[in-house]
């Protein structure tokens, strides 16, 4: 089979041969390997291959699935195929991205608790550590430790890699918010909330963290270890909300904020809730589209998106 690989401007990517000659039974992954071999720079996860669209078309192009055979995309003409190549830029594994973004808050927060950082900011008096500040440290570290463990041992991601630029963007987000909240919760002039409020906050937050972990176990069970697409999440809170994992994530930050009560903590929760709401709406739409109840497909049940009774 003769495969021509062009860039989005129509230029041929591999000049010297004009085209790649690929085995008749080859898969998209084989084609990606062949492109990598010729170009050296573009390893498979950096490549996005699509089918060409007629000029002027406003439709979204079909993205080639690396597991499929090239024959599936030849549209009757089994000997020739033209694909459009896009460079996705340098990539990192999803687990690497998550590891670095969560490692920052896990390390930065205890620095504010254990080390005399406030002297740098001009506070030279004796620092009395309140019990809530110690519990907040444990709670915070448990949360980020859990996220790192889930990244490596629970989540089954659909995409192997993410653009390298996301590491810098996500680290800036998590590390800055982590340091900002740590600064206020561990501050020498911090005023603790009442004992009852602290207990209510941490107990509620811990329950939500356990629930969030259970939600992630349920999501894991939707895919086999060698991948798979999207399924209808069922069981526990998923019977009520599409993104029960985000719901419990938001509420566990609410628990932390009830117990520690800082503006920084509430601002982080509001920003995180806004981000997760956007993602939850997209996930809800995707599941409704995939499971439309037509032509033998399952019908997605009626559910809240993220926060009943608001959304
Ligand atoms: N504080 C914050 O700002 C913030 C923001 C976002 C997330 N989080 C936390 O981080 C956790 C991970 O977030 P995430 O957005 O990366 O992933 P996610 O949506 O929570 O999903 C976790 C894993 O389950 C898979 N999955 C989700 N829905 C599925 C379905 N219907 N069928 C099969 N598999 C499915 C996902 O696959 P895919 O790879 O295909 O998505 C992913 O590997 C969240 O649950 C939340 O606790 C925090």
From TrEMBL:
Residues spanning the membrane: 263-281
CDD domains: Ubl_TECR_like (cd01801)
Key words of the record: Lipid biosynthesis, Lipid metabolism, Membrane, NADP, Oxidoreductase, Transmembrane, Transmembrane helix
Subcellular location(s) of the protein: Endoplasmic reticulum membrane
Residue ranges of domain Ubiquitin-like in the record: 1-90
InterPro entries according to UniProt: 3-oxo-5_a-steroid_4-DH_C (IPR001104), SRD5A/TECR (IPR039357), Ubiquitin-like_dom (IPR000626), Ubiquitin-like_domsf (IPR029071)
Mode of membrane association: Multi-pass membrane protein
Family membership noted in the UniProt record: Belongs to the steroid 5-alpha reductase family.
Name by which UniProt lists this protein: Ubiquitin-like domain-containing protein
Annotated organism of origin: Rehmannia glutinosa
Species classification: Eukaryota, Viridiplantae, Streptophyta, Embryophyta, Tracheophyta
